Amino acid sequence: MNALPVSRPTAQANTTTPRHLFDRILSAVTLADLSAPAALGVIAALTVLSWVAAYFLGGGTNVAPHWFYIPVFLAGLRFGPLGALVTAVISTFVAGPLLPANVATNTPQALSDWVSRGIFFVVIGQFVTQLFAGVRRLSEREVHLQAEVELGTTELQAREARFSALVQNSSDLVTIVDRDGTILFQSPSVARVLGWDLESTTGTSLVAAIHGSDQQLWRTIVDFLVEDAGVEKVAEWRVRHADGSWRVLQSIVTNLIHESSVGGLVLNSRDITDQKALEEQLRHQAFHDQLTGLANRALFAEHLDQALRRRSRMGAGLALLFVDLDEFKAVNDLHGHTLGDELLKQAAARLRATLRDADAIARIGGDEFAVLFEGVAPGSDPRIAAERVIEAFAQPFRIKALDVFVTASIGIALDDSGTESAEDLLRNADLAMYAAKTTSRGRYEVFSTGMHSMILDRMQVEVDLRRALDENEFEVYYQPIVEHPSGAVGGVEALIRWNHPDRGLVMPGEFIGVAESSGTIVQIGEWMLQHACKEFAALTRGVAGGEGLYLSVNMSTRQLSDPLLLNTVQSALANAGLDAKRLTLEITESTVMADVTNAFRVLTELRGIGVKIAIDDFGTGYSSLSLLSEIPVDTLKIDRSFVTGVAKRPEPARLIRAILLLASDFGLHTVAEGVEERDQDEVLQGLGCQASQGFYFARPMPATQLGELLERDSCIPMGTV
Ligand code: C2E
Ligand code: MG
Ligand code: MG
Predict the structure, then answer these.
(1) Could you give the 3-state DSSP secondary structure of residue 398?
(2) Phi and psi dihedrals of 307, rounded to 5?
């Protein structure tokens, strides 16, 4: 393990120095190690001993027997000058006169002689005692100092040990590098934080382990720090973990290059990878749609803003695609939210796969997606991208063994002028999408300024439609269908009319599309069924042969995916007292194609209760042939576009012949639509068409007029239809 490069004091307490030996002797001599009573005992014993010695051996001086010095000195050393004085007085003035005269060299003459000797003895004793006391004080100071040094050293060592333990055990990583980034020291936590081997990585370059994109930050910080000693900086960088991953470290870098005990840049680093990941996750959650993982509206708005700023700098064009899933709501209602969610996920994945070249794709609403293209060049024409999306969405989505058909309608807003704001672009793309939906589903439309008023008109229609139902502004017109060759009315087609308070009589072409896209068609359709069935039943009730007439009612795509359709039809029939056999429901090929599986199921159910099914506008769809083999159908209504030219050009006639052949193969009843002229009628009859409908025979008419017509004309029985 490498040591922290801090200096340590080397002074150690040495118990065998001469100084110490002297101290030991001194404390022994001065009786310092003895307790006060023990020392008193020793001194008393020595005093008595000095008397005995003086008595028998005599004194060594002519002043006082020198044996007396010993206890006096000791008493002085142990108990100070007062102790020495007391001992000297006792020895000299108490014992002295008791001694025989020959003890001293000069025999004492008198007590005064003893007193003068005693005083001299006390003075000398005091002097020597003071000397010893001085030496002892010095020695004690030395010892005290020594003790202080030892205490200081111990404290220092403890402090260093504490600091070292802190560094060694710190969860943070402490690294010291020189100004080139070479690691001089690192704390053991490097093994935990970066998975590095402490020994082998010390001495290597820290910079080499920093992520390439963060190395410039390192250099900037080092350049800044070396200018000023002691300054610190906080930075975040990615450092390579031993397992190859990148860990984000937050480091406080301090310049301690000039600190001799450190001599480098100190990095106090904390691993904030998890924190960063969490932050990133939260950021992601805030700016992404949880379901599809695409950017959300907020992030898209940011992308768009940035793109617009770049556009103003670089002068490059922008395009915005607004993609809306057709019939998503119906799918959601019919199959449930789990399937709806799965559909959205798959739709998002399909968008991503189709629009790799897009700069941003976002989910900005329930079933709405926005796509941004920057620097739009001819090669990356957004129209081509829109076509690709529409094509991709033409394929069914496979969800839980179900084939779900959901087309996409797209609005495109181009930033040709280079002055559009983000809101303008989004609104324009939205309006263009709306415009695309109005004609039919699965199309795109590029925004144009005229769209605005057109869409406002449509919105007005939408508002008016809701009111129209409440105000009972709708009316049913009936157009007779004439059977061949009898020429009698076989049935009627119910066609809706809107008596608008301001606009007068409004034809279905002007509002059915709006009703369809806004969803009101379901209520209008229900009203139509209820009303037409009841009225028709009443009109035909009193008419001769009226029971044999049938009623044909148009169904929209939305109505077909309405889960309550069967109930609606049954209740309409029941309320009207109309036999199910007398009702035909007309649907177009595109309605069937929108969701073949659902169409098959619903039409089978309807046929199950006796209702007949007609394919309206036949021939204008795409998969006519395969459709007939799959879908339960009774009647084909040949579109007016074939009928118009049938008497003049061979091509329509050929097509009608082919349709009639096909119909007879499948055992289907045939009706020609839009017959306006006698020639057309003749050719159609010649080709074998079984019935005709058109202005040539009768225009659509109100109920009262139909009543009169039925009273007048003969009707043919149902059995022949
Ligand atoms: P459609 O079902 O094909 O109805 C026939 C349309 O052709 C009717 O137009 C009718 O007036 C018109 N027509 C009939 N004979 C001739 C003719 O000889 N020449 C010409 N030029 N036109 C002829 P209308 O009533 O305007 O209805 C247009 C379409 O609106 C209908 O076409 C149908 O798709 C839809 N529609 C009408 N009523 C309803 C309804 O109650 N529900 C739904 N979902 N759609 C309806
Ligand atoms: Mg029709
Ligand atoms: Mg038609």
Answers:
(1) strand
(2) -60, -40
Give the residue among 328, 253, 260, 341 at the shortest CA–CA distance from 293: 341
Residue nearest to atom 27 of ligand 1 (CA): 508
Q: Which of 514, 554, 556 to mutate to test the pocket of ligand 1 (most atoms within 8 A of CB)?
A: 554
- Tell me the pLDDT tens digit for each residue of 187-229: 999 999 999 999 999 999 999 999 999 999 999 998 888 887 7
Range in 234-243, 457-466, 596-605, 615-624 the model is least confident about: 615-624
Domains of the chain: 18-148 (no CATH), 170-277 (3.30.450.20), 288-449 (3.30.70.270), 472-712 (3.20.20.450)
Residue pair 477/539 in contact by the 8 Å Cβ criterion: no
Taking the C-alpha atoms of residue 110 and residue 97, their distance in angstroms, rounded to an integer, is 9
Distances (CA, A) of 4 to 165, 176, 197, 389: 10, 10, 17, 65
- Which two three-digit tokens encode residue 645? 């030219």
| Unique residue bearing structure tokens 């301690």 | 256
Q: Which amino acid residue places its CA nearest to atom 34 of ligand 1?
A: 554
Distance 656 CA to ligand 3 centre (A): 15
Kindly provide the b/e burial profile for residues 471-481, where b requires at least 16 CB atoms within 10 angstroms of the residue's own CB: eebbebbbbbb
DSSP letter assigned to residue 361 = E
Answer for the pair 451, 432: CB distance below 8 angstroms, yes or no: yes
Does the CA dihedral 451-457-463-466 come out positive or negative?
Answer: negative
- Whether residue 676 has its Cβ less than 6 Å from ligand 1: yes
Tokens of residue 145, six digits: 């100092």
Q: Answer for the pair 422, 339: CB distance below 8 angstroms, yes or no.
A: no
Q: What is the pLDDT of residues 402-458, one digit of tens each?
A: 888 899 999 999 887 667 788 888 989 998 998 888 777 789 999 998 888 887 888
- DSSP state string for 89-146: HIIIIIIGGGS-GGGSSSPP-SHHHHHHHHHHHHHHHHHHHHHHHHHHHHHHHHHHHH
Q: Which long-range contacts (CB under 8 A, 24 or more apart) does 570-579 make?
A: 570/609, 571/530, 572/526, 572/529, 572/530, 572/533, 572/534, 573/533, 575/530, 575/533, 575/534, 576/530, 576/533, 576/534, 576/536, 576/537, 576/538, 577/537, 578/533, 578/536, 578/537, 578/551, 579/610
**What is the 615 CA–ligand 2 centroid distance (Å)?**
9
Report the C-alpha gap between 309 and 514 in whole angstroms: 37
How would DSSP label each residue in 530-598?
HHHHHHHHHHHHTSTTGGG-EEEEE--HHHHT-TTHHHHHHHHHHHHT--GGGEEEEEEHHHHHHTHHH
d(CA 197, CA 183): 13
CA of 493 to the centre of ligand 1 (A): 9
Average pLDDT over residues 261-284: 86
* CA 614 to chain CA mean position, Å: 51
Coil, strand or helix at 376? coil
